[in-house]
Amino acid sequence: MDHTRSFSDRIEETLIAGILGAMTMITFANVVMRYGFNQNILWALELTVFLFGWLVLLGASYAVKKGAHLGVDIIVNILPLEPRRAMGLAAVAVCIAFSFLMLKGAWDYWSNFANLPGTDGRWVPLGFEEKYREKGWYEVNDIPHPAALVWMEAVFNEGEEYEKTPRLLPYLVLPLSMALMLFRFVQAGWALWTRQTDRVVASHEVEDEIHDVREQLGEEV
User: Fold this and answer.
1) Is the separation of the CB atoms in 26 and 44 below 8 Å?
2) Is 165 helix (H, G, I), strand (E, B) or coil?
3) What pLDDT band is residue 204 in, cutting at 50, 70 and 90?
């Protein structure tokens, strides 16, 4: 067991692996039903698409945390330490601003599906909207509403029965992932500021991973 990973690392990795496993099983089951029984799992494709969206968006924020995004370091590597660190701080500042804008847009898009107000202001939130259209009754196309979530009908749909899953559930990944992305870039900025690192991401992370695996295998042998 790798004890260097934090508890949050294991939670995120387990969640991402679980989503990937669920996508695989649902797709396999649908193929078996089609070619083996000439039937079709109607909601399989839509659920797989939503799971793929969760996988990509959560994986993107986790990759920021692990420094696993692709990076071009041709110029960075030829600079002295302090200019290199300054470039890293400038880059992470842009990333934080971008993530903040994405978080605002994600919240404004998702909030009405949860019967919540979006934010005023185009670039910076100036408060919450006073008038907005509640969209808690919006449903997805094919995915049935789970019996365990029947309580949502009273909270978000004025007691009316959901025939399909409300959109607020699959779309929740938008503000959640953007909040995680913003948090991860703030962490990266703090690491740069406190001189724990000299760049946001490295372009040779795959080589480093291979080297670590070789060392582990050598120790086991």
Assistant:
1) yes
2) strand
3) low
Backbone φ/ψ region at 155: left (φ over 0), alpha (ψ -120 to 50), beta: alpha
Concatenated DSSP letters of 39-78: ---TTHHHHHHHHHHHHHHHHHHHHHHHT-S----HHHHH
Position 79 scores a pLDDT of 78
Q: 188: buried, middle or exposed (CB in 10 Å: 19+, 13-18, 0-12)?
A: buried
Res. 138 pLDDT band, cuts 50 70 90 = very high
Q: What is the pLDDT of residue 3?
A: 44
Q: Which helix (H) or strand (E) holds 27?
A: helix 7-37
Q: How far apart are CA 199 and CA 88, in angstroms?
A: 5
Interval 30-55 mean pLDDT: 91
Question: Which helix (H) or strand (E) covers residue 139, if one does?
Answer: strand 139-144
pLDDT at 221 > cutoff 80: no
Length of the chain in residues, anyone?
221
**Residue 2 pLDDT > 50, yes or no?**
no
The amino acid at residue 89 is L
CB 90 within 8 A of CB 201: no
